[in-house]
Amino acid sequence: MDTKKKYFFFDIDGTLIPVSGARDIPESTKTALQELREKGHFCAIATGRSHCLAEPQRMDLGFENMVCDGGNGIVLDGKLIGIEPLDRELCIQLAKQCDERGITWGVSVEDKPMRLTKYQAFIDRADNFYQRSTLVEDLDIESFPQILKMFVACDPGVEKDIPVLHILPWVRYEDAFIFVEPTDKSIGIKKVQEIYHIPDEDIVVFGDGMNDLSMFLPKWKCIAMGNAVPQLKERASFVTKNAADDGIVYALKHFGWID
After folding, report:
1. Highest mean pLDDT among 47-51, 127-131, 220-224
2. What are 19-23's contacts with CB under 8 Å, separation 24+?
3. pLDDT surpassing 90 at residue 77
4. Can you give the residue ranges of every domain in the chain?
5. Does the domain formed by 88-180 have CATH 2.40.30.170?
């Protein structure tokens, strides 16, 4: 049995929670996580969601630690350590390039479930998906000291014609618009690693989706769920069972981290 303290980072949907959009993790997984904690291991969520949106779920799931905001936010012992914003000058460039092309956009500048936009057309298109939109007709993006996320309302394929998007990180979850947001969970894990002086061999990550590729590094033990995308399985140290088939419990027992 491996009794050395490990630092575990778990994706949420498709990993901790078998069904995307559900609230609860299986009782067997809850029991396994509690056993991990009782044995002295560190457990954290690793999610791309904003802190303000992920925080209620962190508490619901019983975690004290979290990497959020796509790797740019950290919560330790229930306290927000900080959220690293996007590159402000690049975001200002993005707003200008969108304006020049007649593309509407929104912006999040605080750790709150809301975004600002000067375009009613953006609100009509976004339909409050993900978070509430507020119209500010005289919105000046240069007046904000930090920018956490941006949202660009464009059809698939249009983003390639916006030059600065070749530099800024972004992801598309639906056809209506793209999210300009951090996408590298490993950044947050590395910050936690630095804070606690953790050797690479003591970090364990669990995931299932394309957004977990960033934290599946060769120097860490990377466990892909049985329901994971093929690209993640190819990079994994170990492929466990499906999330719905107690995949987390199976892996933890396989490596001797729980009884």
Report:
1. 220-224
2. 19/244, 23/57, 23/60
3. yes
4. 7-84+183-254, 88-180
5. no
